[in-house]
Amino acid sequence: MNLSYFIARRYFLSKKKTNFINIISIISMIGVGVGTMALVIVLSVFNGLEDLFRSLHGTFDSEINIKPAYGKSFTVTPQLLAKIRAVEGVGFIAEIIEDNVFLSYRKGHMPARMRGVPDQFIRQNGLDQAIIAGNARLKYNDKSYAIVGSGVQYILSIALKDEMNPIQIWYPDNSRKTINVSSPESIRKSSIRAGGVFALEQRYDKDYIFVPLSFAADLLQMGNKRNSLEISLKDGEDVDQIKAQIKKVLGANYLVQDRDEQHASLLQAIRIEKLFVYITFSVILAVASFNIFFSLTMLAIDKRKDVAVLSAMGAAPHFIRRVFMTEGAIIATVGTLAGLGSGFLICLAQQMFGIFKMGMESAIVDAYPVKMQLPDFVATGITIALITFVASYFPAVKAAKDIDIRL
């Protein structure tokens, strides 16, 4: 066994002459443990929120999205679709028409975001799992139906079984060179009945309405133009590899993005916030490490006679310095392990039982999501090690310096 570790361990376990030193040592371990536990839990919550964000958009967005690099729309031809389908791993291709519209139902009015999609889109993207009322279908018996967000339904008070009052969708007539909003002739109108209601996430629920692709193309006068193409991949395919191949096939006139790239700004905001939380808790741990500094300083004073005996037996100053730095490392290690263990158990309990609620009614998740990742535990351990080294260094140097003075 390493002699410096043996002595440091004896100092850690033995009762000090001054009981106050024991109290400070315990406070040091508790401070490090609580700080470590809090850091692990908070980082895991941010991981869970990031995963929740991805899962929500994973239902709404396809794995790969193709948009024009310039402008709002582009012409979709059979040749273009054939090029994309030729890429190995490409599954379902959904043509999308999307734009802002104005909705009217009975006495209610509101702006909304209309999305025209193929009939298979609802089930292909898993949106049918978010249907809370009505049916997950856009057409039935040659009739077109809309699927509206729960927020849209609430604002307009839409009744799904209302056969007498369809939803009126208004959109500017693009065939006119000038549009006068006060003139009825400048606005195109189409009627459609609501067939279902979805609840996914507030951002979508209060704004979106899904309609058949043909209905949207007719209302918006799009012809064979589309705002985007959404691609679902076959099972087990690599998104990055297929995305790169599609970019190569289509060229620079198209913007090809995966799910993360479609919402890069929001994901980046989550990661930046996670980084700042990590820095903030690291500073708190650094402040808590002052207890280690005081504990070792008082221990060095308490063990002056022991240090003198070791010096008389030939112990060099660097050996004494190593003893006290090891003592600080033991205090920090015990606190860190306790904190990591406690953080792991709390996160595990939250995953299994959802103990801590978000304090709001939600159709998506009622408890804080958590996801533990090994890099977070490793980063926390390294941070504690660096802070402990700095906190232990100066008391250890002082204890070794006392030997030099006596010598």
What's the rounded overall pLDDT mean? 85
Rg, please? 32 Å
Uncertain spans, ≥5 residues at pLDDT below 50? none
Structural class: alpha+beta
The coarse silhouette is elongated
Strand order of the largest sheet: 3-4-10-7-9-8
Number of strands: 13
Q: H/E element string?
A: HHEEHEEHEEEHEEHEHEEHEHHHHHH
Distance between the termini: 28 Å
What oligomeric state best describes the polypeptide chains here?
A: single chain
Largest sheet: 6 strands, mixed, barrel
Treating each run of at least 4 consecutive H or I residues as one helix, how many helices? 14
Number of domains: 2
Helix content: 40-55%
Give the strand content: 15-25%
Structure write-up:
The chain is 53% helix and 20% strand. The chain contains 14 helices and 13 strands. The strands form 2 sheets. The protein has a 6-stranded mixed beta barrel. Strands 2-11 form a two-stranded antiparallel sheet. It is elongated and about 100 Å long. The chain starts with a helix and ends with a helix.
Write a compact overview of the structure shown:
With 407 residues, this protein is α+β, with helices and mostly antiparallel strands.
Keywords:
2 domains, 407 residues, 6-stranded mixed β-barrel, alpha+beta, two-stranded antiparallel sheet, 53% helix, elongated
What are the SSEs and their pairings?
Elements: H1 3-13, H2 19-60, E1 64-68, E2 74-75, H3 78-85, E3 90-105, E4 108-117, H4 121-124, E5 131-134, E6 139-140, E7 143-149, H5 150-156, E8 167-172, E9 187-198, H6 202-205, E10 208-212, H7 213-220, E11 225-226, E12 228-233, H8 239-250, E13 254-258, H9 259-262, H10 264-288, H11 290-302, H12 304-312, H13 317-353, H14 374-406
Parallel strand pairs: 4-10, 7-9
Antiparallel strand pairs: 1-12, 1-13, 2-11, 3-4, 3-8, 3-12, 5-9, 6-7, 7-10, 8-9
